[in-house]
């Protein structure tokens, strides 16, 4: 049996590369649409201020750590060169821990939902529409952006079969406890 020549194997290799690319892109699409039902449930919990449903769709430890880390970084940056820097660095982990607890709740994330156009009187789009608005991040997570090519604001990670809010990449001033 004769071995195929190099020119005969090129189309096969090309076809395999195209097939691999299609499979990888379909995985990203599947991720986005798989996450969409849980993102929809999270948006409804935020709109309705439903703490139980909110907790079911939030990775509280991961989100709290991420928010605390960002608060600490901003505090240190704001106090650079300040005489009170040592005191603020000493107290900032305690303040960030308390702030993390206060900020990870549905009414606080209402401002982020408003940013996407989902106010208290707005109907939440179905999962198909939401899935089209999510972006695969390449590391198994997906994020919500306002525009297709826009930056990530809300980051979701799948744990135990549920996509949970695990990160907030927006401006921290959007997280407010008063409306």
Characterise this structure.
This protein has 179 residues and is α+β, with helices and mostly antiparallel strands. Helix content is 58%, strand content 12%. It has helices at 6-47, 51-56, 60-78, 85-103, 106-115, 127-133; strands at 134-136, 142-145, 152-159, 162-168. It has a 4-stranded antiparallel sheet with strand order 1-2-3-4. The radius of gyration is 22 Å and the shape is globular. The protein starts with 5 loop residues before the first helix and ends in an 11-residue tail after the last strand. Mean pLDDT is 76; it is low at 14-28.
Radius of gyration: 22 Å
- Report the order of strands and helices: HHHHHHEEEE
Overall spatial form: globular
- The average pLDDT is 76
Q: Outline the low-pLDDT stretches.
A: 14-28
Strand content: 5-15%
What's the total helix number?
6
- Order of strands in the sheet with most strands: 1-2-3-4
Largest sheet: number of strands, sense, barrel closure? 4 strands, antiparallel
Structural class: alpha+beta
The number of distinct β-strands equals 4
Helix share bin: 55-70%
What is the end-to-end distance? 77 Å
Pick out its properties.
179 residues, 6 helices, 4 strands, alpha+beta, 12% strand
């Amino acid at each position: 049996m004769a071995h195929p020549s190099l020119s005969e194997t090129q189309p096969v290799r090309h076809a395999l590369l195209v097939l691999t690319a299609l499979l990888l892109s379909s995985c990203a699409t599947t991720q986005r649409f798989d996450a969409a039902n849980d993102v929809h449930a999270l948006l409804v919990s935020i709109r309705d201020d439903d703490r139980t449903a909110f907790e079911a769709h939030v990775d509280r430890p991961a989100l709290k750590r991420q928010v605390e880390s960002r608060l600490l970084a901003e505090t240190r940056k704001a106090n650079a060169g300040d005489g009170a820097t040592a005191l603020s660095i000493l107290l900032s982990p305690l303040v960030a821990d308390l702030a993390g607890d206060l900020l990870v709740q549905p009414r606080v994330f209402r401002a982020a939902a408003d940013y996407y156009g989902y106010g208290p009187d707005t109907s939440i789009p179905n999962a198909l529409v939401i899935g089209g608005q999510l972006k695969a991040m390449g590391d198994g997570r997906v994020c919500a952006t306002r525009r297709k090519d826009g930056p990530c604001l809300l980051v979701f990670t799948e744990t135990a079969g549920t996509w949970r809010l695990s990160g907030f990449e927006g401006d921290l001033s959007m997280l407010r406890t008063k409306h």
